[in-house]
Amino acid sequence: MNIRRIRKQAQKGFTLIELMIVVAIIGVLASIALPAYQGYIAKSQVAAAYGEISPGKTNVEDMFGQGNGIVAFSDLGLQTSTSRCDISHGGLVTAGAAGTIVCTIKGNGLVNGKTITLSRSQDLATPGAWTCATTVSAKYSPKECPGV
């Protein structure tokens, strides 16, 4: 009788080796998943920052189409600072002028402090042509705005 009781008690729970194996597997999975997750977050933060300054292009073209220049930053229809980026502009003063809209990204360490620059050309053949450039790594930048 005593032998059967001992066997039943010995079979309860997990052994230390089994628990160590489970912890090792979780550690390996976490070491793979965390960098992938950080990259995904960085890419989404860059896309969101680009989305915040893109409407500025339309507003600039609308102002210039009406024959007006950009008198104040509020004419761009953008805020100077958002949760995603600090926004500035340069050169967009008179109708038809070349200039830039720049977003300095606020995000995780992979993209924090990097910039997205929308540039308007003054080329008379293609008025209002906008280009985009960024200092963000190409693997995190949106396809409309190639990175470095």
Automatic annotation (TrEMBL):
Record-linked SUPFAM superfamilies? Pili subunits
- Kindly state which keywords UniProt assigns to this record, in alphabetical order: Fimbrium, Membrane, Methylation, Transmembrane, Transmembrane helix
- Membrane spanning stretches: 12-37
Taken from the UniProt entry, a GO cellular component term is: type IV pilus
In terms of Pfam families, this protein maps to:
N_methyl, Pilin
UniProt record, GO biological process? cell adhesion; type IV pilus-dependent motility
Q: Which residues form the signal peptide?
A: none
Q: Which InterPro entries match?
A: N_methyl_site, Pilin, Pilin-like
Q: Which domain of life is it from?
A: Bacteria
Family label: Belongs to the N-Me-Phe pilin family.
NCBIfam families listed in its UniProt record: IV_pilin_GFxxxE
> What is the protein's name according to its record?
Pilin
